[in-house]
Design brief:
Elements: H1 2-12, E1 15-20, H2 35-59, E2 61-69
Parallel strand pairs: 1-2
């Protein structure tokens, strides 16, 4: 996330807002998906967004900027 925010700031000067629109789907039917696969999906879908918000907010996000999560 830090490289992404640095690239955005170097390209556009600042970050005015952040939209998190990402995620993984289960690769199989619910009953066929293992607990480890669900943990990986959860980690990607939740913690990667948290890391991006933290990286952007803590270093570059303007105080008036909006953060919204689209699902």
């Amino acid at each position: 996330p830090t490289k992404l925010t640095e690239l955005a700031v170097s390209s556009f000067g600042k970050i005015d807002g952040l939209v998190i629109n990402h995620g993984l789907l289960a690769p199989k039917q619910f009953a066929d998906t293992t607990v480890d696969e669900w943990k990986h999906i959860y980690d990607v879908n939740v913690f990667s967004g948290i890391a991006l918000v933290r990286s952007s907010h803590l270093t570059h996000l303007e105080s008036y900027a909006d953060i919204c999560q689209a699902q």
